[in-house]
Batch of 4 targets.
Target 1
Amino acid sequence: MTFTNIFIAIICWLCSMVFGAIAIWAFKRKEPMHFWSGSTVSPEDITDIPAYNRANGWMWTIYTIGMILSGILSLFNILISVILLVVICVPGTIVLIIVYNRIYKKYKNTTVSHKIASSTTKTPKAIVIGIIAFIGIIFVLVGVMLYYGSKDPVVTVRDNSIQIKAMYGINIDFSEIKEISLVAESMNGIGVGTRTNGYGGFGGVLKGNFDSDYQGEILLFVQADSSPTIKIDRIDKKDVFISLRDSHKTKQLYEKLKSSILLK
């Protein structure tokens, strides 16, 4: 579990607190709950106000549970969490509107003319701003994560170590390196295995900790379908695999790493 996992989980749970507050507000209201900020529903327009408010409360409760679930999933698999989050925020908002309209039509009093007046009990502006801000933050985080996660790792040779700058990046001391080799196969051909704490993004990008049937516990910074693949065998630590989008650049990096180790 990394800082990114925890940070996304916290964002999801903060959002769930906002929507949960709306749900509780709906359950406890004496007057009919409204959906749109700046509008109000007259008591005369609703046939059964307690039932109408409960329906609204359950609608927001289900939405809140989706946010909570997304936060829990982010602790184990960021990609699945992000997909669920996007579904909740985009089509989920449309579903909210549809469900609310059905609730309103179900409990609408057809014996009086419907009127939406200027609200004297408006949705608190802080809640509206909070919802917009949280959704905006979520989309920014998703964009940054996908961009950062899809980038090739930046590998730098230092005086006594190899530094890999990337999601799940590390520093590898020369003293722990047993061998550096260039494997002709892609990581898919070598055997990726099961992700234990890592990133599996779009386009076959794999970063982080994996458990392979053939290689054991490994650390990946690879394009899964790109070959060749650099393998860094480490003494009593997880072996590291690196492959870049450009096969030629992977070969150049291998030569650089190999020559640097030999010179030390």
Target 2
Amino acid sequence: MPWANGQGTTLELVVHPRGATTASMEWRISVATVAEPGPFSSLPGVDRVLLMLDDIDAVLSVDGTTVAVRQFDQVAFSGDSEVALTTVSAPARDLNLMTRRGLWGGRMTRVDLGAIGPRTGADHTWLLVVSGAADITDHDGTWTLGELDLARLPADAAVRGSGVGVVLEIARDQ
């Protein structure tokens, strides 16, 4: 899907509600490829968390503040903010969690796929495999995730695997 500013594309992994546009979504998980410096799209009313998936050096400017970003670093910012990628050492992928302010909040946690513990009381919990593989088992059976596969993670699911993943937790604002 094209960026709102028209300067790139993103792979939308899941959006709520299903089929929502950037303007109508309540939350979204996506992976974007950044290859050169440039501005981020303005998304008023949306809170954003970016996590760098690849081992590169990048620098963001968030409302004039310089933020260095390396692999698995996270940067949280308002979609109302003026954000630009000012430096990137090589093309890279970043994971994005966007939530509609006042409706939802979210967070991301880098995890070892062999050591995923109990989940919190989030309304929606997802697992993205960054490298390696993971088997998820719950009352419906077992399924396997490979690199860049995303799956909803039921509270009663057992996860076994090796490699690195990211757990994304999305909860309705109180």
Target 3
Amino acid sequence: MNAPKFLAHASVGIAMGLLAVAASAAPALADGSSAAAQPAAGKPAAITPFLSRQFFWGTLRSGDCQQTNGRLTLNSDGTGDFSADTLTFQTHTHDVWHATFNFSTAAGTRLLSVGPLNSPGMSDGNPPPVYHWDRTFTFDPSLYGAIGAVSQTHSC
């Protein structure tokens, strides 16, 4: 096959492949049906991007316990995750770090609260062992865009 004919066939093959990919990307309806949702006439279908935001905390103390490297991740799909490192300086009885998160708008209007999210039971040592932990949670995804601030209340 000469080059011009090969390129013509390759172009048709690529175009057919792109049509097949575009057809397979149609969203399913909520009831599990395979029919694609139809956008309004003359308007493209809206695609909501997946968004994520993170909030951080430095060193926090409560009693003989300490939290470092606190990180809270919020996802626009209504899922979230908190991770931290905690330790206790003077306890053999399994201290637990209790963290509660209060979410508000930038203007201070309270939206929701999550928690308490609890660390594993901790014991001291010399040096005290560091307990890394991670907890997931869910929230109403319609509130994601309104969240402007997060505060953590904690005890141990």
Target 4
Amino acid sequence: MRLQTKNLTTRPILFIIVLSFVLAIIINSILLVSKTGGDLATANNKLLSIENELEQLKEEDPYKVNEELKNKIKSVETVYLKSVESYEELLKLKESSDISEEFDNLYTKALTELSKQDYSQAESTLNELTQKINAEKDKITQTLPAPLPSKASNVPPGSGFSSQTVSTDVGSFTVSLIASDLSSTKVIVDTASEGDCRDGCPVLPLGDYVSRNGAFAGINGSYFCPAEYPSCAGKTNSFDTLLMNKNKVYFNSDNNTYSNVPAVIFGSGWIRFVSRSLEWGRDTGIDSMISNQPLLIQGNNITFGGDEDPKKGSRAGRSFVGNKGNTVYIGVVHGATVVESAHTLHALGMENALNLDSGGSTALWSGGYRVGPGRNIPNAILFVQK
């Protein structure tokens, strides 16, 4: 939302004109008293009256007015952004829960308060809605059954699919993961678009990516802007991080020259993780590469301990790509925050691991959907037999 503030620049000029007018009244009043023989008390009373008017004008000086308007604009923008975030969180919640009308009614109430310019009350209502959404998310996480019967093990599979419960220093988590050796597997990234796309971009189900490439496994890729999110208007289904697909086409190259977003590069028989995309050039001799964030594990060490993004702090299915030696893994840590996902993968002995998109986009394929199918996505990571 862009608010117009160009009229603020005219306030100083208006103030000068009004001040000049008031000063003229003062001078004329003094002259009039002198000419008519009025006494000094009358003149003084007049001056005192005009002095009060001046003080009122000072209270309305352009700086103060500008500051008040800036604060009001900031308040409007804050509550507006919060309303958009709340709406998107409602959409996500409805993907996994049949929530009651109470949630929709609260959101409607907040919109009504916004329309009446009661920003403080609207913010209070949105905060109440956020608390209820988070409580519902926690309830869903606690009641969700394990995706598949899982065994308790902190040892990842050497090959194929596994569902296992991993014990960590922050709790136990179920992980669905697929392992494959790089000596026999080619890892590629496929995209629905043939090149850079900024808005109205094509998307496909993970299963379509798998079938059109003859892949035996796959997982959803990088963060993108779903069409159903209001904040994604003008950039629907687009992603803005660096990627090279199976056709050797680099995406978003221009706006990632100095990118600090981590990346994983898939070569012929090797895999490499970098903490910043800018550490990687535009080599087309590789099989594929993809960027996303955060980097969870690097060199056997946990590299993500949390940040200010509340979405990373909520529990959901957390997709990842990682490696242990020459074995590459794709999978989902169920019902975890991003930090808990990092601890889980560390407990599994991953040497490196990168977080992928999650929430409604989460999907994992191995002989069929093991997780998902999730929403249609603009890119995916795939395992293809060499």
